[in-house]
Amino acid sequence: MNFNPDFGHVILDFYREDPEIGRRLQILRQCRIRRRWRSLEIHCPNRVVAEGLLSVYGLLVEPIAALSLARHVALFASGIPFMTLPLGDGSGFPWEEAV
């Protein structure tokens, strides 16, 4: 698998003017990110980190959508699919359990 550390930097750089949001997104540094088809895959080392990313998911949506990086985000925890999170119009429940 080819993981690109630049995607994490792009998301963090999007909020470089707001140090509070940057601090909240530091959990993203523990993950590996890659783009595949129309999806941005975020591979977390464990379920705790994946659940931590869910708590800041709203902050991830804006840069991913603004930069047209993906149509949805797929979260993995310990190599196992955890959740798929759409970047849709905001209607309805924003994610579905993968496991």
Commentary on this structure:
By secondary structure, the protein is an alpha+beta fold. Helix content is 34%, strand content 26%. It has 4 helices and 5 strands; from the N terminus they run ααββααβββ. The chain has helices spanning 6-14, 19-24, 47-55, 57-66; strands at residues 32-36, 39-44, 72-77, 80-86, 96-97. The chain has a 5-stranded mixed beta sheet, covered by helices on one side. The chain is globular.
What are the key terms here?
99 residues, 5 strands, globular, alpha+beta, 4 helices
> What is the terminal separation in angstroms?
22 Å
Secondary structure: number of strands: 5
Give the strand order of the largest sheet, numbering strands 1, 2, ... along the chain. Answer: 1-2-3-4-5
Largest sheet data: 5 strands, mixed
Count every helix, treating DSSP H or I runs of 4 or more residues as helices. 4
Radius of gyration: 12 Å
Percent range of helical residues? 25-40%
The average pLDDT is 81
Quaternary class: single chain
**Share in β-strands:** 25-35%
Structural class: alpha+beta
Order of helices and strands: HHEEHHEEE
Poorly predicted parts = 90-99
Question: Strands, helices and their partners?
Answer:
Blueprint: H1 6-14, H2 19-24, E1 32-36, E2 39-44, H3 47-55, H4 57-66, E3 72-77, E4 80-86, E5 96-97
Parallel strand pairs: 2-3
Antiparallel strand pairs: 1-2, 3-4, 4-5
